[in-house]
Task: structure prediction
Amino acid sequence: MTSPIAIDYETIFMQAPVGMCISEHRVIQNANDTLAAMFGYTRAQLQGLSFLALYPTMDEFLRMGLRIAPIMNARGRYADERIMRRADGELFWCHVTGHALHDDQPLGAGIWTFEDVSENRPVTADLTPREREIAALLVEGKTSKTIARQIDLSPRTVEMHRAKLMRKFSAATSSELVHKLIGMRF
Result:
């Protein structure tokens, strides 16, 4: 009879092929080397760092917190793709997934993973924070009406931002815009 293999969870966390961290109220408590390398920090620099440092702007950090909380309350987890910021200021697309450790505290203690998807989806246009937010929601396949409800704007305002995105990405149609946002070539 073989004995069960001892599982070393700390080694798994530290060696994971995706960036991982444990957070408390949107402050990193511990992170693996993959996350540190992805964002251009050392693990020591990440410890105690607010997620704010990983967002392009304070406004995006605040709006994302407002968007995440109700979804975490309903599902206990959250996932999306969004533009994040490295320590050197470079912006990049990142797939983010989080899981709350306590159902009644969606932004309390949690486990988060980050995957750099910029190789498949480069940031190619200079976008405003609102355009980045709308671009991320368009990539999720959401309509202007759904986006408007989700971020508390009028559908007309979302359409105006979509039109600006189409000009910036030289897209003739909304479908072409989404394809360009996800990095597909025509």
Notes: The radius of gyration is 18 Å.
